[in-house]
Amino acid sequence: MNFDKKSDVLIAVREAPFRANKLQQNQSVIQFATDCKNTLVVNNAVHTFDAAFNSSVSQATLYETLVQPLVSKVLAGTNCTALAYGQTGTGKSYSMGMGAEPVTEQQMGILPRCAKDLLMRIPLLKADKENNRIPMQLFVSFLEIYNEKAHDLLSAEPQKPIAVRGQRFTGATKQLLSSLKDLQSLLELGAKKRHVRATNMNQHSSRSHAIVTFSVQRGHRVSRLNLVDLAGSEGVRRTQNEGMARDEGVFINMGLLAINKVLLSLTAGHAVIPYRESILTAVLQGLLSLCFTKLNYLFKPLFFL
């Protein structure tokens, strides 16, 4: 990945393992161009990204290529954001590492790998003579946006929406993080409270957008690494969801459409950015407007981009 490129928004894609089911046939329509690693061919249409990974890529390689450089930027004082976006059932939560189930070190996603690096590197910075005069601490928060309302997943009352004032959550929990064991406990606590529902496309579909924020506090200065697990995009006709699941899908797609508009406006350099079209983009405004952003798009082999 070229972190010196002019744009502050980089886009990568990852192919999910092929799984034949009633929504997929027996043949992929995705081809990886042999002469250009960052190019996909879908139904004879060519798509070029900042990076492209097939289904054999490891969790470690994905993290080291896409997100590990952001850790260095955050420790240097720059706000950074990584978003996982894609169709429902493509493995976004797995890639991000936001599940409640224990995993092996090989299966660790982006989130625990970020925490591991931060916990390892902060003491090294503290030991440096130029940095040891200013206390440095690492905090974590875990929030979700469900049906256009914000919920604190580390709160004792996660079902009660928290207030959003402009670009900030009012009263959101920030936990001091000192070990990976602490993080795992917090992830299990938050993931179990996140809205999940079985749908026609995914037996364990996340019905909310989740935001985990690592805050590196150095005196009065705070830099943030925001990891966003966006709920899966859903076509109403394809999913055939009904009732509450259908309503949730409508809110999910509203937030995703708003994210798309914001990122397109940012990359185009527009003077006016449509942050207020969704609570998701409203609260991400401060995270997207003045930070380095990664969009990790995950897709199934059958479905075109």
Automatic annotation (TrEMBL):
InterPro entries: Kinesin-like_fam, Kinesin_motor_CS, Kinesin_motor_dom, Kinesin_motor_dom_sf, P-loop_NTPase. One of its GO terms (molecular function) is microtubule binding. Belongs to the TRAFAC class myosin-kinesin ATPase superfamily. Kinesin family. Keywords: ATP-binding, Coiled coil, Cytoplasm, Cytoskeleton, Microtubule, Motor protein, Nucleotide-binding. It is found in: Cytoplasm, Cytoskeleton. This is Kinesin-like protein. The keyword Transcription does not apply. It holds the Pfam family Kinesin. GO terms for biological process: microtubule-based movement; mitotic spindle organization; spindle elongation. GO terms for cellular component: microtubule; microtubule associated complex. Coiled coil: none annotated. ATP binds at G86, Q87, T88, G89, T90, G91, K92, S93. Residues 8-305 form the Kinesin motor domain. It comes from the Eukaryota.
